[in-house]
Design goal:
This protein has 317 residues and is an alpha/beta fold. It contains 13 helices and 16 strands. The longest helix is centred in the C-terminal third of the chain and has 19 residues. It binds adenosine-5'-diphosphate (ADP) and magnesium ion (MG). It holds the Pfam family ABC_tran.
């Protein structure tokens, strides 16, 4: 769907921000770009919708070089969400959401309908919020509007640059959950930038870990956790002994509810075993003292692992 072929970006001052990048984002995939500040994530993202021109190589979307698309058509077909979204302060929420569909000439009643549908999708009641101005919303709600605005014209591609990093932890978690749901129902091809490994593990189909404009490792969350390529990856994820056991009980997705699953794990499970099972199954049952206590799924397990690795990293400092 999106293909980077030997992409290099050299800024006029000589900084090589992206260095011969080879990367393919699959159709419908949720790819997370992660890495330390300055490693080239934003530059990589902005070259996709031509906010930044590349120096050499080629980026293809749907098999065609991006610079062969008319610019407005390209931008309309790519939703873009920033860390601090800028809603138009004098426009209502409904008007803000439907900026792009309006430019595309959608009829008025369809704009209204679309805004209501999108507000409902992220749990905001249209009768309460559609007519409000941005200042009458909390930071978290405004950021939600930023996300649905990017989806308004039903683009094929969604680019998100640290969209939740300015939010408090609770709002952040809520928006991540929203996005997980949207991801399942809409299946947009998404490139999501973050510097937060916990967020990456929770959301990604694949994670692309970058350093100094290059890819260090590209793989599924379980591959990065299970088979980190080198010490850089390991340190980014947090050290973790795979034979170490963790307690699944606090992380159960469904407490006490029996999932129709042939697979059952002990609640005190070696990390390696947990990853092996979740690499192949979306969820598994959990047993404690021979009694079924609930179900663990991939998202909740990764959240638990990320929390633990975060704690360990913190203790080392
Ligand atoms: P990230 O988003 O991963 O933090 P960026 O893509 O913003 O990284 O930046 C990558 C590198 O390019 C950094 O070294 C940054 O200082 C440099 N850079 C970014 N924008 C410019 C610019 N307009 N001119 C010169 N250097 C830049
Ligand atoms: Mg950036």
């Amino acid at each position: 769907m999106i293909k980077f072929d030997q992409i290099t970006k050299k800024y006029p001052d000589g900084t090589v921000a992206v260095d011969r990048l080879e990367l393919e984002v699959r159709k419908g995939e949720f790819l997370v770009l992660i890495g330390p500040s300055g490693c080239g994530k934003t530059t990589t993202l902005k070259m996709i919708n031509r906010l930044i021109p590349y120096s050499s190589g080629e980026i293809f979307i749907g098999g065609k070089p991006v610079d062969t698309y008319p610019l407005d058509q390209l931008r309309w077909n790519i939703g873009y969400v920033l860390q601090q979204i800028a809603l138009f302060p004098h426009m209502t929420i409904e008007e803000n959401i439907t900026v792009v569909p309006e430019m595309k000439g959608w009829p008025k009643d369809k704009l209204k309908e679309r805004a209501a549908e999108l507000l409902e999708m992220v749990g905001l009641d249209p009768s309460t919020y559609a007519a409000r101005k941005p200042a009458e919303l909390s930071g978290g709600q405004q950021q939600r509007i930023g996300v649905i605005r990017a989806l308004a014209a039903d683009p094929d591609i969604l680019l998100m640059d640290e969209p939740f990093s300015a939010l408090d932890p609770v709002s952040r978690e809520k928006l991540q959950d929203d996005l997980l749901r949207l991801k399942k129902t809409l299946g947009k091809t998404t490139v999501f930038v973050t510097h937060d490994m916990q967020e990456a593990l929770k959301l990604a189909d694949r994670i692309c870990l970058m350093r100094e404009g290059r890819i260090v490792q590209l793989g599924t969350p379980e591959e990065l956790l299970h088979r980190p390529q080198d010490d850089f990856v390991r340190s980014f994820i947090g050290s973790r002994d795979a034979e170490q056991r963790i307690d699944l009980a606090p992380a159960l997705a469904l407490n006490g509810i029996a999932a129709p699953s042939a697979l059952t794990l002990p609640s005190h499970v070696p990390v390696r075993r947990l990853l092996e099972v979740l690499a192949n199954h979306e969820r598994a049952g959990v047993e404690k003292d021979g009694r079924f206590i609930g179900t663990i799924d991939r998202a909740s397990a990764f959240r638990l692992l990320a929390e633990l690795s975060g704690k360990e990293a913190g203790e080392d400092e």
